[in-house]
Amino acid sequence: MEYANMKTLDIIAKQPQIPLPSYTLRALMKQILQGMRAFHSVDLVHRDIKCDNILLHSPPGSGRVYAKISDFGFAKKVDFLNEQTYLAGTIPFMSPEQFHKNPIITQKVDIYALGITFYKLITHKYPVNERNIKEQGKKMTKLKSIDRPSEIKDNLLWDLLQNLLEFDPNKRISAAQALQHPYFTSPDAIADISKEQQDLASQAAAAEVEIQHLERIFKQENNY
């Protein structure tokens, strides 16, 4: 695993006694979504997005925190024709369609997992977390949507999460669409993020170079 002196996003998600300021949460979410947009732009699907797979690093003396998606062990090229023959992912982060009998796995599973990641970051709990994959599947098939938790007061934030956690993958938004959501683009959102934090979020664009390198590795190994 790449060096990250602040470990992973799970460090924050497990500390309910330390609430994130709104501008920090917004900047982190934006940076992670930018990384996901870059990853998806080369037709890859990660399949194991979760708090533990998002690294946090703060270069000494910079006063900045960089978030980076990691662990590409389950990553593969998008394949709309072939069903997934085995389950990949971490149970609480798995999307509703992954529990279907013959699932076709698309990039939308990563989007749902990001929604759960942000949900956990904010509430410090999972919306659905059964004891095993069979019980999780039973519970997910009975639900039509994720209920709004009391911890989320911001209406724009909840609207964004609802779109990320949409049960129908065809209606679930992409990372690029999420970045155009008013939670990031409204006047209040822009005012909430300082110039330095906007610069921090924009650093995710550099991830595109690394994503292109990753794509070349996938092609060389023919590991589709």
TrEMBL record:
This protein's record includes keyword Coiled coil: yes
Pfam families noted in UniProt: Pkinase (PF00069)
| Keyword flag Transferase | yes
Q: Where is the Protein kinase domain?
A: 1-184
A Gene Ontology BP annotation from the UniProt entry:
regulation of autophagy
What is the name of the protein in this document?
Putative Serine/threonine-protein kinase/endoribonuclease ire-1
Question: One GO MF term, please?
Answer: protein serine/threonine kinase activity
Protein species of origin: Streblomastix strix
